From TrEMBL:
Organism encoding this protein: Candidatus Kentrum eta
InterPro entries, alphabetized: TerB-like
Protein known as: Tellurite resistance protein TerB
Length: 124
């Protein structure tokens, strides 16, 4: 089992997340074949704290988030809180975040009313 706190410290050492670090991160996150909440929290934290990230990190972030949220096919209140915090961390809803919401809306078997409200707020 990978020490996620140490991994975070190592990755953020220079403030930049590069392709090589994304490979290490991907291996750690998918080590057990499941993206759990602790791993999602790590990705959100890295995304918020890094000065700069590469496209590979963005791809990993959104893929892992989608897999985590849709793991049981339902989007619940806790997952909406996670999404809201991740999306609004920088105060701006970007195109990738909008696409994530659209993908989640399409992929979910069911979603709580809070998810619909978040989509309305972000997508219009």
């Amino acid at each position: 089992m990978t020490d996620l706190k140490k991994l975070k410290t190592d990755i953020l050492e220079d403030g930049i997340i590069d392709d090589e670090e994304v490979k290490t991160l991907r291996d750690a996150i998918y080590e057990d074949g499941v993206v759990d909440r602790e791993e999602i929290d790590l990705l959100v934290s890295l995304r918020n704290e890094a000065k700069e990230t590469c496209q590979a990190f963005s791809d990993l972030f959104f893929t892992a988030m989608k897999e985590h949220v849709l793991a049981d096919g339902e989007i619940d209140e806790d997952e909406v809180k996670l999404l809201d915090a991740a999306i609004y961390a920088d105060g701006v809803v970007d195109d990738d975040e909008k696409q994530l919401l659209k993908d989640l809306k399409t992929g979910a078997k069911s979603a709580c009313p809070a998810f619909d409200a978040l989509c309305e707020k972000c997508l219009g």
